[in-house]
Design brief:
The chain has 382 residues and is α+β, with helices and mostly antiparallel strands. Helix content is 31%, strand content 24%. The chain is built from ten helices and 17 strands. It has helices at residues 2-15, 26-45, 54-69, 112-115, 137-144, 197-212, 230-238, 284-294, 353-362, 372-381, and strands at 74-76, 93-98, 101-107, 123-127, 130-131, 151-158, 162-169, 180-182, 187-191, 217-221, 246-252, 259-262, 272-277, 298-302, 310-316, 322-331, 347-348. It has a six-stranded mixed β-sheet with strand order 8-9-10-13-14-17, sandwiched between helices. Strands 1, 11, 12, 15 and 16 form a five-stranded antiparallel β-sheet that branches. A hairpin with a 5-residue loop joins strand 15 (310-316) and strand 16 (322-331). Helix 1 runs antiparallel to helix 2 (26-45) and helix 1 (2-15) packs parallel to helix 3 (54-69).
């Protein structure tokens, strides 16, 4: 079964058209033959055969193969999937491997990670004194997930301020809402913590409230928004962009597979916009910000974004495992890729890490006096 899974894995990497695994290319058979010969030699000749557990060692080989392919690719075994419910709490940090180190990309609103004051760019060095250097991201997420009220030691390294160690208590997450607040001079403020169908529905309601209140300007806060659903981004972009406006292009390895997404309805809000971003604005959130700027609908204010500009797809395997694989690059309406580089704001606002930590832990939009990016947006919209 495991050697069969290797065939499926190689078929997916060799160019499956979608989540179904199609007929493999000739090069796939060559790679499979090489692995089969390698495995046969071990089974016939290894002196200490009691050390060999075919299931375990083949899975390890598959994971090493995937990890050598791309830092954003991973083989997720069924045991890696921990249900997040009332008995297990999601830590709330979106992670990526950077220079081989598990690094925080974004921190979701209302989660244990946010309450602990963790920020994008911080590297997780150890969990309960166990180094994370060689650990897989799914393994780290499993260690971070736990029961409500349980505690663990976390050692992080902030590139700006150095290492620190914290005793963290796991707490239940408070669901983020795309709620709108009305500020002075006809300006509304709306926090967009992520792009999900629920968040998009809430944004539509917020826009209707803004129109009822005769709001002329709107601030959309995408700081620490890790992205989410591309479908949700397209729906959200349609609230502000004219019909037939390009939002993004998915650029696959094969040129004939490129897919361009455009709006299909007229906008519901036509007032001026400001979009707040930071280093935790990632993936589909970057797509949204780039689309509004390219459509000349918004000025982007804040810090350089995360640069997570690839579309990730899950390929199910027969044994219940999932192959998580980057399959395409996101491109801005102008044809630019932002993976690894991020988006440079129209108005750059540098925020000290201590202030950023305070804003993130208390919730964005709650402390306008200390929020330099929000202040700059208000000045520009006035």
């Amino acid at each position: 079964m495991r050697t069969f899974c290797l065939w499926l894995l190689l078929a997916a990497v060799a160019g499956a058209e979608d989540s179904r695994v199609l007929s493999p290319a000739p090069a796939t058979y060559d790679a499979f033959s090489q692995f089969a010969s390698f495995l046969d030699a071990i089974l016939k000749n290894y002196s200490n055969s009691t050390n060999l557990t075919l299931h375990v060692h083949t899975t390890a080989a598959l994971r090493a193969f995937v990890r050598s392919l791309d830092p954003d690719a991973e083989l997720i075994a069924p045991a890696d999937n921990i249900p997040v419910d009332e008995t297990h709490i999601d830590f709330g940090a979106v992670l990526a491997l950077r220079e081989g180190q598990p690094t925080i990309v974004s921190v979701r609103d209302g989660t244990t990670a946010q309450l602990a004051g963790l920020l994008p760019g911080e590297r997780l060095a150890a969990i309960n004194d166990e180094p994370t250097t060689a650990a897989r991201l799914s393994e780290i997420q499993r260690q971070l997930t736990g029961t409500p009220g349980s505690k663990f030691l976390l050692r992080v390294i902030d590139p700006a301020t150095g290492p620190r160690q914290m005793l963290i208590e796991r707490r239940g997450a408070t669901p983020a809402r795309s709620a709108i607040k009305f500020l002075a001079n006809g300006i509304g403020y709306c926090r967009l913590a992520e792009f999900t169908p629920t968040a998009t529905d809430q944004l539509i309601l917020a826009i209707e409230r803004a129109k009822a209140e005769r709001t002329r300007h709107l601030i959309l806060d995408l700081r620490n928004n890790p992205g989410g659903s591309l479908d949700a981004v397209i729906i959200a972009a349609q609230l502000f962009l004219p019909a037939q406006t390009k939002v993004t292009t998915l650029a696959y390895a094969r040129a004939d597979r490129q897919a361009t997404f455009v709006t299909s309805t007229e906008p519901r809000f036509t007032g001026s916009l400001a979009v707040l971003v930071n280093s935790g604005t990632a993936a589909e959130a970057e797509v949204f910000a780039a689309a509004l700027r390219a459509g000349k609908r918004a000025r982007v204010i804040g810090e350089q974004t995360a640069g997570r500009g690839r579309h990730i797809q899950l390929f199910p395997l027969p044994d219940g495992s999932l192959l998580s694989l980057p399959v395409a690059y996101y491109e801005t309406p102008g044809g630019r890729r932002f993976h690894d580089t991020g988006l440079t704001p129209d108005v750059v606002v540098e925020v000290h890490r201590d202030i950023e930590r305070k804003l993130a832990s208390t919730g964005y939009g709650q402390n306008a006096e200390a929020d330099l990016a929000l202040q700059r947006a208000l000045e520009l919209l006035k």
